[in-house]
Design brief:
The protein is mostly beta strands. Helix content is 15%, strand content 55%. It has a nine-stranded antiparallel sheet with strand order 1-2-3-4-5-6-7-8-9, with no helix packed on it. The radius of gyration is 26 Å and the shape is elongated. The model is unreliable at 27-32 (pLDDT under 50).
Length: 186
């Protein structure tokens, strides 16, 4: 009889514990959806990854304070972004932005919020800086584009334009419209 009473008490305690730790139904539904209504994916704080070319050389590295997967759109959402772009046989670039969206296949990186690009010259030439609010970057083809106000700094020279497209490997730059420049004499 005593064993039966002990077993019933233990069963009641186990049931009460199970019910007590069970999340409310509305809380479960909330945790299965992201802020934009799609299903949640993974997230990473302090994300770092490298991408290599066909020969196994690192082409670029990305660091992000936070990375969120958006599985319904096959993209990644990044915050606090820094990119080290090092194409073979071309000038390296350091790119930073407040946030970015990246396709999961790595073919496009859409940077936004105080985007800054600086080349890293190794031949003693002047550093080039590109500042804009938003920029699209295709690492595989080394192309960049922006429809926003862009400021380009080349030593003492300053150029401003609305929109830009560039092939970083080919070292070509096209300013779209409203081009203004300041060239300081040396």
């Amino acid at each position: 009889m005593r064993n039966t009473v002990v077993m019933i008490v233990l069963a009641l305690l186990a049931g009460a514990t199970w019910i007590w730790t069970w999340p409310p139904q509305n809380q479960t539904a909330r945790s299965e959806r992201s802020a934009d209504g799609g299903p949640l994916g993974y997230y990473v704080r302090g994300a770092r990854w490298s991408v290599t070319d066909e020969q196994g050389r690192v082409t670029y590295r990305i660091r992000a304070e936070r990375l969120d997967e958006v599985p319904s759109e096959e993209r990644l959402r990044l915050e606090g972004v820094a990119v080290e772009y090092q194409p073979s046989d071309a000038t390296a670039w350091a790119i930073s932005a407040a946030s970015a969206n990246a396709l999961k296949d790595g073919s496009l990186l859409e940077l936004s919020g105080d985007v800054e690009m600086r080349n890293v010259p190794t031949d003693g030439s002047a550093q080039q800086t590109i500042l804009t609010e938003a920029l699209r970057f295709w690492p595989d083809t080394s192309n960049i584009e922006s429809e926003h106000l862009v400021e380009i700094r080349l030593g003492d020279w300053r150029l401003r334009a609305m929109g830009l497209s560039s092939d970083l490997k080919g070292q070509t730059l096209t300013l779209e419209s409203e081009v203004h420049g300041t060239f300081a004499p040396r």
